């Protein structure tokens, strides 16, 4: 049995963890205490997660929540804004101050481990000639989000609690938001509605997608057996272009709408890439993706 404090338990990562717990895919006896701003609103929106054995919800902002006076075996810090339209400085505040507060709590509650869900954004721009970006690639983040996540990694490393770092890339799953800036979710939404699937750019950027159940398996394996201070990329190494993704979603779901690509590719230009090397996860933690892209599309579409 393990008792885990989870921040960000109502976002995509949190919902995916709860889904695995509900379906018996996590270790028996796992107990979760989940911090979120409005637990009642979340449970009303996702009634399938109400009343789960061993799960409690507490209300609070990750930047200043009141510490529950309990001991925990581990803390998973997954609280991250999913949208990019926040007020100036708000993204950094949530990521950095939230991490600082969570690290303080990890010390307070006697946690043996602290797992941070960081991001591939800490690397900055992946050189287009580099097929897969490894963990030892220099971190030169260029976005507010990536800069904040790299700072969060340092806060966890300096926390005094053994810190595991999961650098997360792109994902699929039934609880992925279909109405914000995630291509997979947008394309899934439009395919299910019978509308054209619209690619806003030229469709050439390369991404890869790890299915939600695999994501949860990877996170809990890193928590259990990862080496503190040694980041692990979490994602798939199977690259797919945005145009190919749109076409695959249409074909797998037999959607009636066509794929519309707004712009034409620039001749001779290498496509942008955001694709991790996962050799470290494979060799050190025996982790491999178990769900194909086609199956991930079908499973993601199953939740209406």
Q: In the CATH classification, which architecture of the largest domain applies?
A: 3-Layer(aba) Sandwich
Q: Give the integer mean of the pLDDT values.
A: 95
Number of strands: 14
The CATH top-level class label of the largest domain: Alpha Beta
Mind explaining what this structure looks like?
The chain has 9 helices and 14 strands. By secondary structure, it is an alpha/beta fold. The strands form 4 sheets. Strands 3-2-1-4-5-6-11 form a 7-stranded parallel β-sheet, sandwiched between helices. Helix 3 packs parallel to helix 4 (144-157). The longest helix has 19 residues, at 90-108. It starts with a strand and ends with a helix. The model has no long low-confidence stretch (mean pLDDT 95).
Short description:
This protein has helices at 12-22, 39-45, 90-108, 144-157, 183-192, 212-225, 242-252, 279-285, 293-301, and strands spanning 3-7, 31-36, 55-59, 74-77, 113-119, 163-168, 171-172, 197-199, 206-207, 210-211, 232-234, 240-241, 259-261, 273-274. With 304 residues, it is an alpha/beta fold.
């Amino acid at each position: 049995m393990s008792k885990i404090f989870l921040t960000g338990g109502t976002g995509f990562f949190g919902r995916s963890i709860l889904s695995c717990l509900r379906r018996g895919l996590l270790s028996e006896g796992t107990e979760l205490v989940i911090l979120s701003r409005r637990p009642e609103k979340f449970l009303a929106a996702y009634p399938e997660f109400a009343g789960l054995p061993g799960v409690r919800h507490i209300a609070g902002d990750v930047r200043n929540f009141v510490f529950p006076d309990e001991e925990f075996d581990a803390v998973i810090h997954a609280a991250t804004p999913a949208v990019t339209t926040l007020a100036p400085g708000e993204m950094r505040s949530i990521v950095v101050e939230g991490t600082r507060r969570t690290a303080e709590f990890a010390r307070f509650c006697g946690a043996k481990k602290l797992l941070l869900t960081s991001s591939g954004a800490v690397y900055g721009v992946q050189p287009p000639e580099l097929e897969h970006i490894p963990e030892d690639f220099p971190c030169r983040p260029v976005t507010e989000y990536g800069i904040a996540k790299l700072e969060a990694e340092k806060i966890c490393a300096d926390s005094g609690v053994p810190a595991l770092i999961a650098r997360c890339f792109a994902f699929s799953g039934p609880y992925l938001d279909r109405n914000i800036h995630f291509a997979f979710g947008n394309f899934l939404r439009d395919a299910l509605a019978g509308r054209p699937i619209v690619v806003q750019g030229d469709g050439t950027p390369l991404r890869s997608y790890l299915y939600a159940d695999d994501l949860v398996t990877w996170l809990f394996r890193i928590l259990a057996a990862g080496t503190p201070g040694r980041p692990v990329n979490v994602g798939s190494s199977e690259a797919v272009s945005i145009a190919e993704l749109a076409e695959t979603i249409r074909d797998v779901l037999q959607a009636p709408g066509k794929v519309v690509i707004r712009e034409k590719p620039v001749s001779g230009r290498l496509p942008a890439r955001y694709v991790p090397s996962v050799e470290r996860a494979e060799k050190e933690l025996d982790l491999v993706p178990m769900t194909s892209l086609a199956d991930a599309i079908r499973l993601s579409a199953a939740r209406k």
